[in-house]
Amino acid sequence: MTPVSEGTGEPGRPFAPVPPAERGATRIADRVVAKVAAQAAREALGTLPPPAAAPHANVVVRQARVPADEGRHAAHIRVHLELDYPTDIAARCRSVRRRVAERVGALVGMDVPEVAVQVERLHLAPGHGVAKGRTR
Description:
three-stranded mixed beta sheet, 3 strands, about 25% helix, alpha+beta
């Protein structure tokens, strides 16, 4: 019996790595990237007031334009979210941007040059600024 080389399945032939150009490509759908981005935004925000909707994201994936990055893709992300109020809106948006860029880069392997955060609605915290009865 002739030994079979690992990876080729052919007797006596040594394993030869496949050049990168011949390996094929993995295509990740935009909606998958959007789901990863929305989940990352949820993680960054923590708990939200009960009437607030979960964050959602829109994503446009483009091929890198730099020849050195040929084959790389860049995800341009817009995250829509609702926040409780009062809160430091700028800090919360910064936290969402950072978390979304990190998670999409790590889980999907795409560059994230842009994360736009759109605050759709602010929810007043219960008991804050709400006067009972008549105010003057």
